[in-house]
Design a protein that fits this description.
It contains four helices and four strands, in the order H-E-H-H-E-E-H-E. The longest helix is centred in the middle third of the chain and has 16 residues. It starts with 13 loop residues before the first helix and ends in a 6-residue tail after the last strand.
Amino acid sequence: MDEPVATQAEQSSPENTASDTAEPAPENGDSQSQSSVPLQNAGNPSAVDDYLTKLSRHLSRFYEYPRRARRLGQEGAPVITFEFRRDGTLMGHSLRTGSGHSLLDEAALAMLEQAAPLPPVPEEMAGRTFSYALPVRFSLR
C-alpha cells in the first residue's frame, strides 16, 4: 500500500533544513529567504507538531503515485525542500534528494505545487517565512 507523506520528517536534524535555504534560491530571490525559520524551530513545540500534522494531511490530499511508476515497480523516497510564508504562500521549492526515478521525483514536486497555498501558520509559531525538508514515500508494499 502507498505511504503518502511523513508527518514529522527530519525533525531530528533541523540543521540540515536550515542550510537548504542557502542552496537553491527561491524563485523570488528576495532577501526574506535568508531569514527563513526551519519549521521545526518555529517556537512552541505543541503548535509546531499540530501544524506539521495539518500540513501532512493537506499534502496527502495531493499525493499521487504515478501509474507508470507502479507498473515499472519503482519505489523511493525523494526529499523535497520548500519555503513558504505565514499565509501559506509557497516561495520556492526544489528536490533535495532524488529517489533514483524521475517519475517519483516529479510526482513529489507536483504534489507540493498542487497543494499550494499551504495551510496558514498559527500565531503561536514564530517567524515570517519557514523552510522544511520532507521525504515523500512511494512504496508498493
